[in-house]
Amino acid sequence: MALMFPRLARNFVKNGYFPTDEPTLERSLAALAPANGSMCILDPCAGEGVAIAEAAHALGRGQVQAFAVEYDAERARHARQLVDRCIHGDLMDTLISRQSFGLLFLNPPYGDLSKDANGNVGYQGQGRARLEKLFYQKALPLLLYGGVLIYIVPHYVLDAELVGWLTRHFAELRIYRAVETQFKQVVIFGRRVRQRDQATDSVKATRALLLQIGQGDVEAEELPVEWPFLPYTVPASPAEPEHFYRVTMEPEQFAEEVGRLQGLWPTLDTHLGAAQQSLRPPARALSHWHLALALAAGAISGVVKSKTGRVLVVKGDTHKEKALQTEYTERDDGSVAETRILTDRFVPVIRAWDMTPGSPTCGEVLTIR
User: How many helices (H) and strands (E) does the chain have?
Assistant: First the structure.
């Protein structure tokens, strides 16, 4: 099987990103066979999108929906030309429907996880915190039961914890050395099953082999040119993913939406331009309690003109004071008990700027209590 797309991926090699080499990709896809029906496949670390696009063509492009997630903006733009749907963002910042994909092609970033300001790494596990394991944890629930995993990682990542996950979650596990040996990669194939017992002889043997390869005691066989076993059939997906989007808005999408909607400016008059209705005078004089509420609510403020022509710019406020009351009672033994009662009292205060022409206090700030 020849690859469909000329490899332009080397133009994107930067910031520690290295795509799957062509021979490894070609031989890995030879192990797959399509099901009867529409299939959904996913690459959560898609790079420029070539690997998942090649998988779609290998399975039959007309019956495959290819999905991708890519962190780098330039590579994501390239991937969108090759796949059906691509999210520009971090897989950890996405919402994707669980058990939606028949094939998970996972070649994650490599390296140790760094801690945040709180000392957390975002990794749920007891072993060494690695990016390969974090992406495995996030991507595994997206795969259908019966779905196929192609997992490409450095062999030394296979510690007891990761091997335990693989043997617990997958059947028909096979491991091979990648054709390109620069990054010491292995290619792991498996079919997802419901959590199973690891005590059977076959599972123990698979687990032992993976651990030996991870420790460097045994070298995996090179990925064969011709797949020697029955191919892994990628199952049909019952429906397209209901959810497939980034949780936070992409910067380009945000700029586009701001330009399209223009924020609140088109409806500025609707929200802020309506003329304020004049306040009607109360039916009777306000009590101190009502006055305090009106002041606290800001209803008493602005320019006030009296019938005599006095002009004040007023601003109301209210503060709370404690009123002390002392009571004395005589006990049966003749002693005197003193009881102090503190009562909250709201004190309304109005500050007025006298703007009355010709007034002796014109320009002064007056306090009205």
Answer: 9, 15
